[in-house]
């Protein structure tokens, strides 16, 4: 049987819908959306009027081989706890793309003995993803950099999915280790400034996975990611909660729900996002800086993922475990997605 299908696990979720709708015109008979709730998926198919197949599939349960007999590429838009499914795809010669930002899962993947029977692609989206490509672009022009700051600002009035908001809030109360650092890092502690002309917006340490993949790619370079929101009040509140050691309060359901409600009220801020990467020499002198902006971060993530999916699908040679820059460059993505603006 010819393997020509693309299975989108979570293709009916917040980001998954954007990916699915973007791919449908290019793959009118090859798309399968998969998940645990058939009713929800069938409702999405009916509402979108797209020619999609539906498959019930629970990624945490034993795998039914018959679901994958004609699948060439799998795209996963949901978080996973184990790497069992990735290993299955790799051993079966099915290309795999992960559209999440889970650092713990990246580290599990990096430790796997993955073969080159198929491609296993990580760092897909805004951060990780676009930010990886931005640093690669700067590296082309100044390969001697010693430090890189990746700064991301999200709009509070943006339509973030529930899973993305929950993940972000859960990360606020975590410490994390970073290659080359002697001590664990605390989210929303150390500050940098996102420079937008005369405006300088504070951003703070955050555990996006791009800094981990990039420190593995560029050993002995200090590459660190920072996050902020377009409201100084909210960004400052997160920092003060860290400073006063109040972030553990987010473990209490009432406080978690209250902070989440504040972040999703859409009474302040906008739907604009910014990603800025700056490189420095050994004396911490600025070498280069690249800034990208756009609206609707989830849509940007979905568009970048859809662009990459088409690239991987068209590539005949398997690649093993790779990042987004194996298939495309920063210039490729910006040219293909006019919704992204380089400042």
Give me the secondary-structure topology.
Layout: E1 5-9, H1 14-23, E2 31-35, H2 38-48, E3 53-56, E4 71-76, H3 84-92, E5 95-98, H4 103-110, E6 119-122, H5 126-141, E7 147-154, H6 162-172, E8 175-176, E9 185-186, E10 191-196, E11 199-205, H7 210-217, E12 222-229, H8 232-243, H9 253-264, E13 272-280, E14 286-295, H10 297-314, E15 320-323, H11 330-336, E16 341-342
Parallel strand pairs: 1-2, 1-4, 2-3, 4-5, 5-6, 6-15, 7-12
Antiparallel strand pairs: 7-13, 8-9, 10-11, 11-12, 13-14, 14-16
Protein name: Saccharopine dehydrogenase NADP binding domain-containing protein
InterPro entries: NAD(P)-bd_dom_sf, Sacchrp_dh_NADP-bd
Domain Saccharopine dehydrogenase NADP binding: 6-107
Tell me what the structure shows.
The protein is of the alpha/beta class. It folds into 2 domains: 165 residues, Rossmann fold (3-Layer(aba) Sandwich), CATH 3.40.50; 171 residues, Dihydrodipicolinate Reductase, domain 2, CATH 3.30.360.10. Helix content is 36%, strand content 25%. The chain contains 11 helices and 16 strands. It has a 7-stranded parallel β-sheet with strand order 3-2-1-4-5-6-15, sandwiched between helices. A 7-stranded mixed β-sheet has the order 10-11-12-7-13-14-16. A two-stranded antiparallel ribbon has the order 8-9. A hairpin with an 8-residue loop joins strand 8 and strand 9. The longest helix has 18 residues. The chain is globular. The termini are far apart. InterPro entries: NAD(P)-bd_dom_sf, Sacchrp_dh_NADP-bd.
């Amino acid at each position: 049987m010819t393997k020509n299908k693309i299975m989108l696990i979570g293709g009916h979720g917040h980001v998954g819908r954007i990916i699915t709708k973007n791919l449908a015109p290019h793959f009118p008979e090859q798309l399968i959306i998969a998940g645990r709730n058939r009713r929800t998926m069938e409702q999405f198919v009916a509402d979108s009027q797209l020619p999609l197949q539906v498959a019930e599939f629970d990624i945490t349960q034993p795998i039914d081989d018959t679901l994958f007999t004609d699948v060439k590429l799998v795209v996963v838009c949901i978080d996973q706890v184990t790497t069992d499914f990735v290993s299955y795809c790799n051993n079966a010669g099915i290309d795999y793309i992960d559209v999440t930002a889970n650092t713990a899962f990246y580290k599990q993947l990096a430790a796997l003995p993955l073969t080159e029977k198929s491609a296993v692609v990580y760092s897909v989206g805004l951060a990780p993803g676009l930010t990886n490509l931005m640093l690669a672009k700067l590296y082309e022009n100044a390969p001697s950099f010693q430090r890189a700051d990746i700064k991301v600002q999200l709009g509070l009035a943006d339509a973030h999915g529930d899973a993305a908001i929950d993940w972000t809030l859960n990360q606020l109360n975590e410490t994390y280790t970073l290659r080359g650092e002697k001590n664990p890092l605390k989210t929303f502690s150390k500050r940098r400034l996102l420079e937008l002309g005369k405006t300088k917006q504070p951003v703070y340490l955050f555990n996006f996975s791009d800094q981990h993949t990039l420190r593995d790619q560029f050993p002995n370079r200090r590459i660190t990611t920072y996050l902020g929101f377009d409201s100084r009040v909210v960004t400052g509140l997160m920092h003060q909660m860290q400073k006063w050691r109040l972030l553990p309060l987010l473990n209490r359901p009432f406080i978690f729900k209250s902070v989440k409600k504040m972040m999703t009220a859409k009474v302040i801020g906008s739907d604009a996002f910014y990603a800025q990467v700056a490189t420095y020499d050994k004396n911490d002198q600025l070498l280069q800086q690249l800034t990208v902006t756009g609206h609707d971060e989830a849509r940007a993530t979905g568009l970048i993922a859809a662009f990459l999916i088409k690239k991987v699908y068209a590539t005949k040679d398997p690649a093993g475990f790779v990042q987004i820059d194996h298939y495309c460059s920063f210039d490729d993505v910006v040219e293909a997605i006019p919704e992204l603006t380089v400042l």
